[in-house]
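hey m, so remember when u said the tokens were messed up on ur end? i reran from scratch. heres the input so u can diff it against urs
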Amino acid sequence: MADFMFARASSVPGTGHSDKVLSGLFGPQFLLIDRRAQNVFVHALAGVAVVDSAVLASSTSEVTGYATHFSYALGGGTELTLHGPFAVRFTGDYQRTKFVNSRLVSVPQNNLRVSAGLVVRFGSR
């Protein structure tokens, strides 16, 4: 399975800089329930996360830049068949990343990700 995520915040408090996070994770996905109308799955993904942001170094100065670090996610979800090749997928997972804080030290960051999407299946099921 491949998972790509992009998130953007319009401004980092106290700076004139926006915040952008991009991650690319890959790994296995296992079906726990495989029925025609519903699938339930779990996944374990690993890859990298990149943040482009700013941190306040002092009350009058900021440091901008980007950092790339190892990231992983553990989670699962369900896929419900709507009609024919169409389904809807609900996914949730815990993602661990590591970014720089205001003292310019790399610190872990824990994220809960929840998503929903439309699935179009190609080929026979």
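this time it looks ok to me. The CA atoms of residues 87 and 119 lie 5 Å apart. if urs says something different then somethings off w ur setup not the seq
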